[in-house]
Write a structure and sequence with these properties.
By secondary structure, the protein is mainly α. The chain has two domains: 60 residues, no CATH class; 87 residues. It has a two-stranded antiparallel sheet. α3 crosses α5.
Length: 175
């Protein structure tokens, strides 16, 4: 339930990333002896990854038809994270990105399961965590043909320099 954006970025979601079974060519109307899938469980910030994984495993086993054996190899689970957009550091980053890309910044939720981020936030309380990546719809994140436009990468490097400038200016105002 909720908006598409909420369902994609703020709530848990299950996605089938890949599926091995007989192909369409040569398939027939029969029971398939074996099939496998790679499934991703995206967590909402604050969800317990082990509890969520265990719940998904229990659901898959309970939903299996009579006589079907379900074998599950679970990868390591990581905590989700929600970036605090009210910090001065976030405002400095947003300004730097707008200047470097010569365009208003468009904020969007994306993922949230970068395992090192909650570990950094827990280790360094009060530190502003900002997650930025260069790319567009043609970048094909995490795929075999992932790529980034070099002009976007150059603008992102410029944005990092401008962010350091902005943070320095903000620090001078505070002291």
């Amino acid at each position: 339930s909720g908006t598409v954006a909420d369902r994609l970025f703020a709530k848990p979601a299950v996605a089938v990333l890949g599926f091995d079974a007989p192909g369409v060519a040569g398939s027939s109307n029969q029971i398939v002896p074996e099939a496998s899938a790679r499934v991703s469980l995206r967590l909402a910030p604050g969800d317990d990854p082990e509890r969520a994984r265990d719940a998904l495993v229990a659901h898959l086993r309970a939903a299996a038809p009579w006589g079907v054996q379900v074998e599950i190899e679970a990868d390591e689970a990581g905590m989700g994270y929600l970036v605090d957009t009210s910090t001065a550091a976030y405002a400095a980053a947003k300004s730097a990105l707008a200047e470097a890309f010569e365009h208003d910044v468009v904020e969007m939720g994306s993922g949230g399961s970068v395992p090192i981020v909650p570990m950094l936030a827990e280790t360094f309380p009060g530190m502003a965590v900002i997650i930025v990546g260069a790319g567009d719809e043609r970048s094909n994140y995490h795929s075999l043909d992932e790529s980034v436009d070099l002009a976007d990468l150059e603008r992102l490097v410029l944005a990092e320099v401008l962010l350091i400038r902005n943070l320095g200016a903000a620090a001078r105002l505070v002291t």
